[in-house]
Amino acid sequence: MTARVIRILQAEDVQAEENVNVLVVANDADVAELPLEGVDRIELHFPKFSDGRAFSQAYLLRRRRKFTGDIRATGDVLIDQLVQMQRTGFSSAVLKEGKDIADAQRQFDRYAAFYQADVVTPQPLFARS
User: Fold this and answer.
1) CATH number where 51 lies
2) Number of H helices, E strands in the chain
3) What is the distance, to the nearest Å, from the Cα of residue 44 to the centroid of all Cα atoms in its chain?
4) What is the pLDDT of residues 34-74, one digit of tens each?
5) How many CA atoms are closer than 13 Å to the CA of 57, on its beta-carbon side?
6) In sequence order, which ranges of 10-98 are alpha helices (DSSP H)?
7) Closest Cα partner for 51 from 22, 88, 81?
8) Is residue 1 one of the residues assigned to a domain?
9) Is residue 28 part of a domain?
């Protein structure tokens, strides 16, 4: 899989987007059974920051279901979650209202590389040439 950079959006950015085929998934849904044909974007919701089920859903959609479209985080999306969101398969996130995109970018500058494998980089550091 090619490296992805998560697209960080604010609520007002989302309203101006063009129409695409979107599948909104509850955070307790079984993603193994979702019909993905023709879907351009899947929105996974974080009802509160401490509910991480959407991380698992994104990972399963990328790794097991081989979904290549946009996986978007919505809901209670905080800046400190964005790096992990990218690592588990999210390609875009709508920040919680009042959060600054510049602060979000600093998180990615702080954590530029990881030892473990993830969805973005499927090999651990020791196995990379």
Assistant:
1) 3.20.20.70
2) 4, 5
3) 8
4) 999 999 999 999 999 889 999 999 999 999 999 999 999 99
5) 22
6) 11-15, 53-63, 82-88
7) 81
8) no
9) yes
Contact status, residue 71 vs residue 42, Cβ threshold 8 Å = yes
pTM of the model: 0.85
Cα 82 to Cα 52: distance, rounded to the nearest angstrom: 12
Gyration radius (Cα) of the chain, Å: 14
Q: Which backbone phi and psi does 74 adopt, to 5 degrees?
A: -130, 165
Assess contact for 22 and 108: CB atoms under 8 A.
Answer: no
Across the strands, what pairs with 42? 23, 71
Q: Considering the domain boundaries, does residue 58 fall inside one? A: yes
**Position 78, amino acid:** L
Count of Cβ atoms closer than 10 Å to residue 56 Cβ: 14
Q: Which candidate, 53, 121, 17, places its Cα nearest to that of 129?
A: 121
